[in-house]
Amino acid sequence: MHLTEWELRRTGTLVPEPGILVLVCENPRVLEAVAQDGIPGWAVVCTSGEPNLVVDRLLVDLAAAGVELRYHGDLDWPGVAIANRAMMRYGARPWLMSAQDYLAGVSRSISGPALSGGEVEPGWDPDLGAAMRSHGRGVHEEAVLDTLLQAVRDDSP
After folding, report:
1. Residues 111/84, Cβ–Cβ less than 8 Å
2. In terms of C-beta density within 10 A (0-12 exposed, 13-18 middle, 19 or more buried), how is residue 119 classed?
3. pTM attached to this predicted model
4. Does the first or last residue of the chain, that is N or C, have fewer Cβ atoms within 10 Å of its Cβ?
5. Are 73 and 101 in contact (CB under 8 A)?
6. What is the separation of C-alpha 68 from the centre of its chain, rounded to a whole number of angstroms?
7. Helices (H) and strands (E) in the chain, counts
């Protein structure tokens, strides 16, 4: 569901039941795919790019409640910048965002977009930044959606 600030104020802190994993993603297609698949044991928060004020408040509340946040986003320079901020601000854990994951994504989506804009060093994996510079291509979430969904299924509590 789309959450507004009014709904969040009315509802208060939204904290999943113990044992529920929270995937924080960048692309709404990931949220739709997890919902369509009906995978139990997961909640998904989609930032739709840079988190807006409502998403920020929700993620701050979840982090303060001790909820484990697993972050997956686009592997391009803007996506790495968003991921760095999510890890610093919310204590999110990078998930399927290593150099190895990037290389697997590049090999599957050779037509991925060329990297553009200023380079951003991934704070969680220096090898990832080197691999991205070497290949010069981005890997967006929708290009690795089947891999991401399989990992969600495999990690369901």
Report:
1. no
2. exposed
3. 0.91
4. N
5. no
6. 13
7. 7, 4
